[in-house]
Amino acid sequence: MPNATLLILVAVLLPPRALDALGQLVEERVILTPYGEAGPLALRVMPDGLATWVQPYSGLPTRTDPRATIYAARQLGVRRILNWDMGIGLNTLLQRGEPFIVDDYISWVNHQADTFFSEAPMGMDVNAANLRTAFCPELTRQLRELMPGAPQGVVLGADFLRRETAAEARMFRMFGADVLSYNLVPEVALAQELGICYAGLVTVSALGADRPAVAAHGELRQTLHAVVDLLPTFAAMASQPPTCHCGKHE
Description:
Blueprint: E1 6-11, E2 24-33, E3 36-45, E4 51-56, H1 66-75, E5 80-89, E6 99-108, H2 137-146, E7 152-158, H3 166-175, E8 179-181, H4 187-193, E9 197-207, H5 219-238
Parallel strand pairs: 1-4, 1-5, 5-9, 6-7, 7-8
Antiparallel strand pairs: 2-3, 3-4, 5-8, 6-9
Helix pairs in contact: 2-5
């Protein structure tokens, strides 16, 4: 069985056969973890032998526990994760359909599920040593190389099951958030704790609730297809041995 060290979490809406770009489907697997089942994860292999795990994903609290997803990735030998999400454009310069590369985050989620150290003594700071590299700088640089015009900045990760209010959108923007996303956080913190490199990409699917609505002209569908076309190249780049220092790579 080919060895795959990259997992792509796909939290966007794609046609069923779009991910054929990553190769033939050779295996599907559901992983049982202490936090519940994760999967199905699909192993795809390209003609040159490059293998990638892919998981259609929603980390919302009504579905897969984010801890199960990241724990399962570690069990499979994954060393790098790309989480591709759809999100809300809070920054007034962002437009619908625009790809956004994430380099930092603000957590607005259930804090019981954002760490594997929930039983740690009160006040124990388990992440302090690596907070400067929450998103892998090497994977982020590779995304920039593939999408040189894409904006980059801060995601606010939320887990409430509704759209934000206009007042919340203004508040989140004051916090310094550029986009609002539902599937990148707390996964980034969990990956960090297990020494897995993690990158975040958000396709802006809507504008913040305090911004005027705009008519759709197919720009979202166009951007999604453009990113799919780039995934094989990203997978090839991410398959090289890591040189970053954001994880403990054996």
